[in-house]
Task: structure prediction
Amino acid sequence: MQPLKYLVGYPPHILEKVHALIAQDRLGPMLANKYGQVHAVRNDGQLYDYVQALKDRHLRKSVPLGKVLYDGKLQVMKHALGTHTAISRVHGGKLKASREIRIASVFRDAPAEFLKMIVVHELAHLKEAEHNKAFYQLCTHMAPDYHQLEFDLRLYLTQLEVGAD
Ligand SMILES: [Zn+2]
Result:
C-alpha cells in the first residue's frame, strides 16, 4: 500500500478503510454524495467578502483582515492546510497588526464545506498562532463539525491525488 500523505498519523484501522475505499473506487463517489454543494467564491474579491462575513459573525473584535487571496502556488500540506502570515506595519509610530490570508487555489473548486473549513482554520489563527486546544475551540465555535470536515478534507485531497494517477 502506498502511504497516504494527507492522513499521516491516523491509526492503521482508519488507513485500512481508506485504502479499501480507494481500491473499490468508492472514495470519490462517497465524498461527492456527502459534499455535493459547490460554492460561488470564484475570485479574490469574492473570497475577501466571504472571509470578512464569517469574521464579522464570529470574530468581530479580532485584528482587521489584511489581504485575502487564492494562491496557486500554496501547497496545502506544507502549510498545514492553509497559511497564516502575521505582518506588522508601522502606522504613524503605532504598530498595527494586520493579517494576510492565503487560501490554496484547490479550494476554489472544492465543495463549499471545505472552503468554509479552511477559512475557519485561518480565521482561528487570527487569535491563536498554534494548533492548540484554544485554537480548535475557536474552530468548532465557527464550524461545529470542524473535526469531521477536516478529516473529510484530507480524504478529498487524497482522492484528488489518486484520481489524478
Ligand atoms: Zn494552521
About this structure: The first helix runs from residue 12 to 23.
